Automatic annotation (TrEMBL):
Protein name (Swiss-Prot/TrEMBL): Octaprenyl diphosphate synthase
One MF term in the entry's GO annotations: all-trans-octaprenyl-diphosphate synthase activity
GO biological process: isoprenoid biosynthetic process
Record's function text: Supplies octaprenyl diphosphate, the precursor for the side chain of the isoprenoid quinones ubiquinone and menaquinone.
Family classification: Belongs to the FPP/GGPP synthase family.
Enzyme class: transferase
Species, as recorded: Parendozoicomonas haliclonae
Source organism superkingdom: Bacteria
Keywords: Magnesium, Metal-binding, Transferase
Length: 326
């Protein structure tokens, strides 16, 4: 079965609910301020995978939830994610995402930040409407941790002295936390047992870590056209990701010096040499191994859930997360 067919089969598991989420997104994007709607639709319609809303739907189904609040919950998660993308692109001065111009490249930084704020506030309005304090508490905590993760990443830009342990904490906060919030809040909504709730938290966390580590890998091995962003973007921004951290720790003295200088300087002048170094010292294989370990931990975490099409789709999603090419 091809990767495309695997993806289609996973999404087909929650096809009707996914259509309802898309309708809810369009409804909740409404604003009397035309620029808010324009930018909101531009980034929402950019063709992303909507993996985090998918996780809400799959997790709710795996817990045999029978209500309808998982639809607005999935929309909330997508709005929180989209808000972070708008803000990230401003912080990183990015001009390309998913193969087209970023919102800040088209409309400027100020409108992008403010529409990101609108999406955050709309998400919290919708949380109030769901009316479950434990869901709101979990999402409030998640948005706080994500913000801290983004600041930690910013502090590490052009810093070659970050340890692997510290880096894993950054991506847990910055990326994995929203994956975890997606699965955790679905469990809370469904009234899952404490054991099931913990299982879904762990699944989301490990899946998020695996997803980010593969992103790190693709920054040095991917195809720009498939990824919708430029190869070497992390290096250009001076971000010390795991392939670079491994090279500095385990490569030769010359390889370590090359990478340290490239991180401090930023830009792409040394990209070819850095690519050669991370390949030669085994950094790419190491990063792939760590990603696969996380994906397997995600799969193991949900072994306690009852058999269902949703659980099987979650297992497939974890496997797909480490075999993807974009």
């Amino acid at each position: 079965m091809s990767q495309h067919e695997d993806v289609r089969r996973i999404y087909a598991t929650v096809d009707e609910d996914f259509k309802a989420v898309n309708e809810c997104i369009m409804t909740q994007l409404h604003s009397d301020v035309s620029l808010v709607e324009k930018i909101g639709h531009y980034i929402i319609d950019a063709g992303g995978k909507r993996m985090r809303p998918l996780l809400v739907l799959l997790s709710a189904g795996a817990c045999r939830y029978e209500g309808r609040d998982h639809i607005p919950l999935a929309t909330i998660i997508e709005f929180l994610h989209t808000a972070t993308l708008l803000h990230d692109d401003v912080v990183d001065s990015s001009d390309l995402r998913r193969g087209r111009s970023t919102a800040n490249a088209r409309w400027g930084n100020a409108p992008s930040v403010l529409v990101g704020d609108f999406l955050y506030s709309r998400a919290f309005q919708m949380m109030v409407n769901i009316g479950k304090m434990n869901v709101m508490a979990t999402l409030s905590n998640a948005t706080n941790v994500i913000a801290e993760g983004e600041v930690m990443q910013l502090m590490n830009v052009r810093n070659p002295d970050i340890s692997e342990e510290r880096y894993m904490e950054v991506i847990r906060c910055k990326t994995a936390m929203l994956f975890e919030a997606s699965t955790h809040t679905a469990a809370l909504l469904a009234g899952a047992t404490a054991e099931q709730e913990k299982a879904l938290q762990d699944y989301g966390n490990y899946l998020g870590l695996a997803f980010q580590l593969v992103d790190d890998l693709l920054d040095y091995t991917g195809n720009a056209e498939e990824m919708g962003k430029n190869v070497g973007d992390d290096l250009a921004e001076g971000k010390p990701t795991l392939p670079l951290i491994y090279t500095m720790t385990n490569g030769t003295e010359d390889q370590a010096r090359l990478v340290r200088n490239a991180i401090r300087k930023g830009g792409l002048d040394a990209l070819d040499d850095v690519l050669a170094a991370v390949k030669a010292c085994g950094a790419l294989e190491y990063t792939a191994t760590r990603a696969n370990e996380c994906a397997q931990k995600a799969i193991d975490a949900i072994s306690i859930l009852p058999d269902s099409p949703q659980r099987e789709a979650m297992i497939s999603l974890a496997k797909l997360s480490v075999s993807r090419t974009s």
